[in-house]
Structures are given as structure tokens and as C-alpha cells.
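stage 2 :: seqdesign
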């Protein structure tokens, strides 16, 4: 395999260059892709660099200079070109959010490592363990503001390192997957991964992910929602991550104790109080005056407390899942979805339908379906 020379790359900063790069990319069978964003420094975050490598060249595409990346969309969507990424979820969502792009024919080396049951799943660890390649990971560069221009040489070399070794890593992981008969497992996982899309956060939905929301009544939830909206507005106005305004934990603490002086709330320092104190008080008042927020109604009927038999059955199913994972020496969570096991613990007679629920993969059903049927049979069907 002819790999690019270390440190060599083409920086793409205009549409004419990008058109030429895309013509090259459409002629190859596989490419390695990665992106860098500015989520630690700006809000909302944006993709600031797109790294794409062939087995001979590396292209660093600057979307802040090029602006229009539409020429790249057919490349990423092309089913005939395999895309190699590591931890693709973030990159797919970012490119979909900023440019509406989708990825087809994906091979995620992080997912491959999970399916193989490897101990270290990070890119640096995999390269070291499998290829005996050590790539320097400078925390300073990892946390850098990728929106700043010009990008320095160290940052560009760091970006190159995230794609140049993916070809050799892919080949080594694929060989292991084939040897274990798991290549189809990964193919299904990658197909699911390629279907992820960016979905904007709705404040109503977001507040229920906050731990303290469980303690709040409708009025408290209205205060929490107002605080969330205030923080989001300030973060956008100042172009800084929302956590720099105040943390989610602090937001929840304020909503739980809206009458407590702000200086006594954990996470509210003198600087936060000085800059945002008045706005926080206004948000609290807005929430108190607003109609109470209703909790979302579950589409499923409320279930009774599980019986002792159901609790015991779930415990047995968890042991079964752990034992299957140990036998195959891989990630327990990949054996069978926990939500599915919880439903089966309550209604073991629904296994036939449950095997075809959206969470269950085809390969899981084929690999573990009979074993799961057997363990349910030993536990008996009464609820």
C-alpha cells in the first residue's frame, strides 16, 4: 500500500480546488474521513476542517474558506466508495447539521474494535496495539480553537494523523472480523450508524434529561425550561459554549431552590453573578409566571411494579447476556439490547415479536436468538 508521505497534504481553500479534489475522490474505492469542530470554544459549534485521505494523498478542506462544500456531498453519499472513519457518529452528525450531507458505505474502526471485543477503543490505542504505530496526541491541540486562522503546522499535522493510518487499521481489523465470522455483524452496525442525522435540541425535551427534573413539579419544570432558554440565548449571543454560562447541574439546583440566594447555589461564582445574575432572576420569574410544564405522556401504558418472578427473570437474563459476552470475548451491551430484555422479563411469551423489535439487530437474532429462547424456557413463562 502506498501511503502519503508523512506531513504531506493539500490544503483546499476554494471551490475550484474542491472540484478537482472531488474528481479525484470519485475515482477511488475508499477514502478516510475525519472532521474537526470548535465545540469547546463557540456556540453553536461548526465544522472547521474536513480531512480526507486516499491511499496516496491527503486533502485538508477548509470549510471556513471554501464556504460551499456541496461538491463533496456526492462523494460521501456514493455507495461505491467506502468511507473509513473512527467514531463516525460525531462526524456524520456534524456534516449533516452544517451541510445536509449523508454518508453511505461506512466502515467505523471504533465499532469494529467493539465487535471484536478489543480492550482499547480509541484511535491512538488501536494503532499502537494493532499496528505498533504511536501517534503523538497533544492535548493542547485537541482542545484548540479550530476556527482560528491560519491553522499552524502542528494542528495540520495532528489532523493528518487522524486519517492516514485508517487504511492499514481497516485492513487489520477486517482480517480479524473475517476470521471470527463477524464481518456481517459490523456491516449491520455501520449501516445503522450511517443513518444517524442531526436533530436540533428542543428545550422541552432537553430539560427532562437533567437529573433534578425528576424532583420538580410543573412549576419547577417551567423554571428549569426558562433557565435553559436563558442560558442558550446567552451562549448564542456571546458565542461561547453554554457550560461557560453555568452548568446543567447548577441550572437544576436553581430550579429546585428558586428562592435561594444565587450566591449560595453551587456553581454560581461572583463572576457569573455579576454577568448573569439579573438575567437568571428574570428567567426564574418568567418560569414562575408561565403555565406549568406537563411531563411528556408515555405512548406505553403505565406498568405495574414488577413481580418477584419478573425481577428474578431479568436477573437471569442479565447473567445470560454477560456469559454470552464472555464466551465471545466482546462488549456485553452488543449481545442484546437491555430494553428488550426488560420487556421479555415482564412478558417472556413475546420473544417471537421481540426478536424483530427495532432495537434488535439481524445478527443478534441469528447469533443469540435460540440461546435466549432456551434461557427463557428454563425460567418458565408465568409472570
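stage 2 :: out
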Amino acid at each position: 500500500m502506498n501511503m502519503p508521505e508523512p506531513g504531506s497534504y493539500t490544503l483546499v481553500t476554494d471551490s475550484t480546488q474542491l472540484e478537482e479534489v472531488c474528481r479525484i475522490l470519485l475515482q477511488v474505492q475508499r477514502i478516510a474521513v475525519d472532521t474537526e469542530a470548535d465545540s469547546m470554544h463557540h456556540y453553536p459549534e461548526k465544522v472547521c476542517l474536513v480531512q480526507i485521505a486516499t491511499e496516496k494523498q491527503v486533502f485538508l478542506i477548509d470549510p471556513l474558506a471554501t464556504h460551499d462544500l456541496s461538491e463533496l456531498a456526492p462523494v460521501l453519499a456514493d455507495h461505491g466508495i467506502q468511507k473509513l472513519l473512527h467514531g463516525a457518529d460525531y462526524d456524520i452528525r456534524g456534516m449533516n447539521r452544517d451541510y445536509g450531507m449523508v454518508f453511505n458505505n461506512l466502515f467505523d474502526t471504533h465499532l469494529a474494535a467493539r465487535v471484536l471485543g478489543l480492550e482499547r477503543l480509541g484511535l491512538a490505542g488501536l494503532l499502537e496495539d494493532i499496528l505498533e504505530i504511536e501517534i503523538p496526541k497533544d492535548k493542547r491541540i485537541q482542545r484548540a480553537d479550530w476556527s482560528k486562522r491560519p491553522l499552524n503546522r502542528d494542528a495540520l499535522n495532528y489532523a493528518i494523523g487522524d486519517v492516514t493510518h485508517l487504511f492499514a487499521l481497516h485492513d487489520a481489523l477486517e482480517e480479524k472480523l473475517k476470521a471470527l465470522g463477524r464481518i456481517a455483524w459490523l456491516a449491520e452496525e455501520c449501516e445503522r450508524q450511517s443513518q444517524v442525522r442531526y436533530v436540533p435540541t428542543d428545550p422541552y425535551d432537553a430539560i427532562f434529561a437533567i437529573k433534578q427534573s425528576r424532583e420538580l413539579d410543573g412549576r419547577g419544570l417551567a423554571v428549569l425550561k426558562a433557565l435553559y432558554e436563558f442560558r442558550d440565548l446567552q451562549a448564542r449571543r456571546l458565542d461561547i459554549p453554554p457550560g461557560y454560562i453555568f452548568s446543567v447541574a447548577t441550572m437544576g439546583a436553581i430550579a429546585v431552590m428558586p428562592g435561594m440566594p444565587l450566591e449560595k447555589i453551587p456553581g454560581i461564582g461572583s463572576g457569573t453573578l455579576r454577568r448573569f445574575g439579573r438575567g437568571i432572576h428574570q428567567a426564574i420569574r418568567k418560569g414562575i409566571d408561565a403555565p406549568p410544564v406537563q411531563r411528556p405522556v408515555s405512548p406505553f401504558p403505565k406498568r405495574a411494579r414488577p413481580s418477584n418472578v419478573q425481577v428474578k427473570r431479568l436477573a437471569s437474563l442479565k447473567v445470560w447476556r454477560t456469559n454470552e459476552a464472555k464466551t465471545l470475548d466482546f462488549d456485553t451491551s452488543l449481545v442484546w439490547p437491555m430494553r428488550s430484555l426488560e420487556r421479555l422479563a415482564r412478558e417472556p411469551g413475546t420473544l417471537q415479536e421481540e426478536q424483530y423489535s427495532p432495537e434488535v439487530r439481524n445478527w443478534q437474532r441469528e447469533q443469540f436468538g435460540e440461546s435466549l429462547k432456551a434461557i427463557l424456557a428454563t425460567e418458565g413463562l408465568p409472570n
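stage 3 :: structure notes
- The domain at 10-194 is CATH 3.30.420.10 (Nucleotidyltransferase; domain 5).
- The first strand starts at residue 10 and ends at 12.
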